[in-house]
Amino acid sequence: MHPVRADRGPRRLLLGLTLAALLASAPGRADTTEEGLDQGRVYAIQDRAYRMNHEFGLTLGFLPLDAFYKMFSIGGHYVVHFDEMWAWEAVHLSFSKYLDVDTGLKGELADRWDASPTDPEENRIDFALDTNLMWKPLYGKATLLGDTIVYGETFLLFGVGTEKFETAWYPAINLGVGLRLFLGESISMRLEVREYIHFGDRTGGTLQFALSFCYNAFAEDLLKPAALPVQGVVP
Fold first, then answer.
1. Is this structure's pTM higher than 0.85?
2. Highest-confidence range of 31-45, 59-73, 132-146, by mean pLDDT?
């Protein structure tokens, strides 16, 4: 007998015991699955604490891109929220005609180089009026200082409108992104950035940073349970 072949018996026995153990454990695993004890991971998604209905807002904005005027704006908006994901900002108005700050660049050009810009006032925007579709993909909560829960959601804006400069009106496309923080059932705060791209005999963009304080009208209607159908018995 060769000594190498003598080891095959124990090895085959060990292999057979291993296979038998695996086959014996298979029915037990199947029973566990059928009994519902091993159905995979379970995720619990909490319902939203706040829902928007009819939103009215007051907006304070800042337009930073003009080199000659750092303009501030005041405006407002109305938004109707269809559900938790979609809304329509029916009206958004921004007014900035008399809320600007001269940067002093015109005076510096005149004093140091005896030069003056060509009609810088034509770049000053008076109004922006637009309507937008709002998409709200993310909603969540976070803790503030370890003891206060803050609820919030993000949103994207896309719409059309018009911009009024010192000289003319121009059609525009509006793109925006923002964050809403809920201060309660009826009050929330929006932080957002908008970019207006206007067209016509001149093409350009207007960047606006804005802070809005919003009132959620008829918020209590969303908290009322749905009415159950009344079932009657006919004798």
1. no
2. 132-146
Q: Any idea what the CATH number is for the domain that residue 94 is in? A: 2.40.160.20
Tell me the residue range of the domain where 166 lies: 54-220
The larger pLDDT score, comparing residue 13 to residue 143, is at: 143
Q: What is the pLDDT of residues 34-62, one digit of tens each?
A: 455 455 666 667 778 889 999 999 999 99
Total structural domains within the chain: 1
Do 199 and 170 meet the contact criterion of CB atoms below 8 Å apart?
Answer: yes
Q: Is residue 29 part of a domain?
A: no
Phi/psi of residue 124, nearest 5 degrees = -80, 125
Kindly tell me the burial class for residue 195, based on how many C-beta atoms sit within 10 Å of its own C-beta (0-12, 13-18, 19 or more). Answer: middle
User: Under DSSP, is residue 119 helix (H, G, I), strand (E, B) or coil?
Assistant: coil
Burial class from Cβ neighbours inside 10 Å (0-12, 13-18, 19+) for residue 67 reads exposed
